[in-house]
Amino acid sequence: MAKQPMLKFVTVPRDMPEKRDANVRKQDFSEIYAEYAAAKAEEQSARCSQCGVPYCQSHCPLHNNIPDWLRLTATHRLEEAYAVSQSTNTFPEICGRICPQDRLCEGNCVIEQSGHGTVTIGAVEKYITDTAWEKGWVKPITPHAERDQSVGIIGAGPGGLAAADMLRRAGVQVTVYDRYDRAGGLMTYGIPGFKLEKDVVMRRIEQLEQSGVEFVLNCTVGEDISFDAIRGKHDAVLIATGVYKSRDLSGPGAESQGIVRAIDYLTASNRASNFGDIVEEFESGELNADGKKVVVIGGGDTAMDCVRTAIRQGAESVKLLYRRDRMNMPGSQREVANAEEEGVEFVWLSAPVGFASNPRSAEPSDASPQSFVHGVTVQRMRLGAPDASGRQAPEVIEGSDYLEDADLVIKALGFEPEDLPKLWNTDGLEVTRWGTVRAEFGSGRTSLDGVFAVGDIVRGASLVVWAIRDGRDSAQAILEYLDTEASAIAAE
């Protein structure tokens, strides 16, 4: 009788890839987890219980066939495991690195619920596709037949790139427009290298270029090219711009120098530390934490990226202020633990109410001196009754204010959509009361004929994996639209 290759969770403990020592890893921007060896990946995959109803799969936004590729990995069929993984996920090696598995697949693993420790799904997913790249199994896309129809995609983030991949597989001609000088969106300039090394993103961009996707970079729609011109050039258009407008802070001193946006700070760091670009604001110290007392305000994954980046830049101290407690913060608990290991101090149940600043002498070219932040006025909070979302609402503790020293304050309060109809001078593009593009669920169809929208510009700030899901779904809807249009023309 053949030996059972799976269900080894009772005898084999959970074992993550080795994590580099905090004192070592905080000196650079390399990823903190090592790669599995083949034997270890097979061993950990064999812990899967092969559930009849796999909750890991149902809680994955892409509904990845996780039990299938775990079994294939455990039984030495790695190339097949890659094929199964790639069939539902355009960028499995990226999701394996940055998805919050503790809130999605791994957090809903049946053996985790029974106390045996979840299968290390994310680490195995990363291993499968990294090996596929190493072995040459990842090839440029070669459609069975080319189509003469074209689609313009505005935004080179995960949603736009996932759609580009799917459309090229169907033979559609694809052009991607993006405001930045490199494609990838937040995967390139928003997420630090210690979570996602940039060569991982760049090789996917190169694969798409080799597959025939055209990238038009340094191109701001509404300035360098009009939205109407893009519509006129293509048979369909996909809006995948993401959300880049930062939520702001109010209160006395909120306009002081030294209070910066998270997106600006992370972009400067990624350019300088991961690509070797010369960034004036980084070189001047404006967007560089070296030697400074840093305070980050926020509780999401972007805030985690900021505090861990500041540590690597050589900050004197790094503190994060969050108005709720540890259990009620939206950021990944795994990221919190990593940050604490690296020396970040979390100040729970606290919120800024103002900023202390000092004027500095004006430069000869300046008309007047500017005020530079030197502290944050912090108000202590407590958790009260649940709000509309069911989470306990923070309440102010009167008379609890104190001053937290700070030379650099980073605002990581989340992102909001830009006013696209105004920026693009486009009548008829409907938006919601939150400013997101109004689009049909599942397809991404907007109020404009032949125009679709996906990702954060529809959902609001969300996860990379959801943008990939939206891009793939909308690509299918676009293909159906193109087929309908082609049939209508043929019938005339």
UniProtKB/TrEMBL annotation:
<dbReference type="InterPro" id="IPR009051">
    <property type="entry name" value="Helical_ferredxn"/>
</dbReference>
<dbReference type="InterPro" id="IPR028261">
    <property type="entry name" value="DPD_II"/>
</dbReference>
<dbReference type="InterPro" id="IPR036188">
    <property type="entry name" value="FAD/NAD-bd_sf"/>
</dbReference>
<keyword id="KW-0004">4Fe-4S</keyword>
<feature type="domain" description="Dihydroprymidine dehydrogenase">
    <location>
        <begin position="25"/>
        <end position="136"/>
    </location>
</feature>
<keyword id="KW-0560">Oxidoreductase</keyword>
<protein>
    <submittedName>
        <fullName>Dihydropyrimidine dehydrogenase subunit A</fullName>
    </submittedName>
</protein>
<dbReference type="GO" id="GO:0046872">
    <property type="term" value="F:metal ion binding"/>
</dbReference>
<keyword id="KW-0411">Iron-sulfur</keyword>
<feature type="domain" description="FAD/NAD(P)-binding">
    <location>
        <begin position="151"/>
        <end position="471"/>
    </location>
</feature>
<dbReference type="GO" id="GO:0051539">
    <property type="term" value="F:4 iron, 4 sulfur cluster binding"/>
</dbReference>
<keyword id="KW-0408">Iron</keyword>
<dbReference type="InterPro" id="IPR023753">
    <property type="entry name" value="FAD/NAD-binding_dom"/>
</dbReference>
<keyword id="KW-0479">Metal-binding</keyword>
<dbReference type="Pfam" id="PF14691">
    <property type="entry name" value="Fer4_20"/>
</dbReference>
<dbReference type="InterPro" id="IPR006006">
    <property type="entry name" value="GltD-like"/>
</dbReference>
<dbReference type="Pfam" id="PF07992">
    <property type="entry name" value="Pyr_redox_2"/>
</dbReference>
<dbReference type="GO" id="GO:0016491">
    <property type="term" value="F:oxidoreductase activity"/>
</dbReference>
